[in-house]
Amino acid sequence: MSEPSTPEPGRPGAQAGPVAFLGLGHMGGPMAINLVKAGYTVTGFDVVPAALETARAHGIATADTAAEAVAGAAVVLTMLPSGKHLLDAYRGTPGQPGQSGLLATAAPGTLFLDCSTINVDEAREAAELAVAAGHRAVDAPVSGGVVGAEAGTLTFMVGALPEDFEAVRPMLEVMGKRVVHCGEHGAGQAAKICNNMILGVSMIAVSEAFVLGEKLGLTHQALFDVASAASGQCWALTTNCPVPGPVPTSPANRDYQPGFAGALMAKDLKLALNALQSTGVAARLGPLASEIYDSFAAEGGAGRDFSGIITDIRDRSAH
Ligand code: NAD
Q1: Per-domain residue ranges for the chain?
Q2: pLDDT tens sequence across 244-266
Q3: Helix H segments across 28-101?
Q4: What is the CATH number of domain 191-316?
Q5: How far is the CA of 26 from the centre of ligand 1 (A)?
């Protein structure tokens, strides 16, 4: 284990207790770096040795096991690929010596802060398990991508009891520029998937409109100039415009390099679909968007920006 740095008095993290940071991937790595820069005492852990090496190269102290990272932590922050990874880590692997879960390992009253994007039901289950084990739980998924994680400009959508929200707010404000308390356990995940369902559906709608405009002889700029100042206005059009030209910073101008990758949109729409099914909402467009982005991701779009869906629509319209 490498030693965590001692916080300097006067910096935001100096008042806070030690943080165990589990999951040092594309998002978690830069988020942990920002906490260290703000003076937090951070011990990182990841199951992939290369992620630990990168973290150490950026000044993050690391542990050899999750249990070692969690020992003595006041906050256990997780940034993992899925709800299964989270629940397995919380519970541990039954029957395997030395594999007891984080909830059993942590000191009573530890604050478990999960920033991964997972199912709402899994977030609620994770919080129930944490509370039943004598801990505190917060779900705080993010938007803003790797660029936002590096720049410390993420948006956090938070599900927590009011006092736990206030406890994590200063930390989240180090890693993000907007922190919204959405309600109690699971509400952060709920807000995230509802927002991304709007985004997935609206990107498909904007892309279909541009391809229809092409067929009708409209220039991209003419449709943009009208729709961006009319009732078709939305983020998918005015910030992440799926055609090159009207918004020079949109991924369409760099051959759909992400941005927000198709695989992540497909994942988030699957989480929305699960929530639509478990709540019995009679949605049509959400499930259809999930199906459309599943195919997009499976057929070469996983690593492209999700606005690249327009090329699929155009290809299927060529006859
Ligand atoms: P990633 O795969 O790069 O990182 C996840 C890390 O978790 C990996 O390094 C993996 O080795 C590690 N891990 C897995 N199981 C572990 C365990 N038991 N203990 C410790 N580490 C473990 O993924 P990412 O892009 O950083 O995304 C993380 C989460 O953030 C996901 O839920 C994703 O949906 C969400 N998210 C990602 C983005 C983005 O743009 N990448 C944007 C918003 C939200």
Answers
A1: 19-184, 191-316
A2: 999 999 999 999 999 999 999 99
A3: 28-37, 49-57, 66-70, 83-91
A4: 1.10.1040.10
A5: 7
